[in-house]
Write a structure and sequence with these properties.
With 97 residues, this protein is mainly α. It has helices at residues 10-23, 27-40, 44-55, 66-73, 78-81. The protein starts with 9 loop residues before the first helix and ends in a 16-residue tail after the last helix.
Length: 97
Amino acid sequence: MSKYLVEIDKELFSILKEESKKSAKSISDIVNKKLLEIYGQKPRKEKLLFTLNLVFGLWKNRNFQVETFVRSLRRGSRVDTIGHGCSHMDTEGRRES
């Protein structure tokens, strides 16, 4: 970690001081977190595109139907099971009073 002197106006310092009291964190922690949010992390869109590029084509050489595979992992579908076995639901899947 590096130390760096930053001059800020009194209004901003008051805001930071108040946030420090509310959150029970040091002003340094608050400033570091905000700087990381703004400059230190890739934007959500970039992260998503990076991840999609990593997994693209991952299953292309698999010899099975995706629909069949996914269905085998599930116990049923929402339409098949909605309201069944629930004493607080009526036959239409609505909550009973």
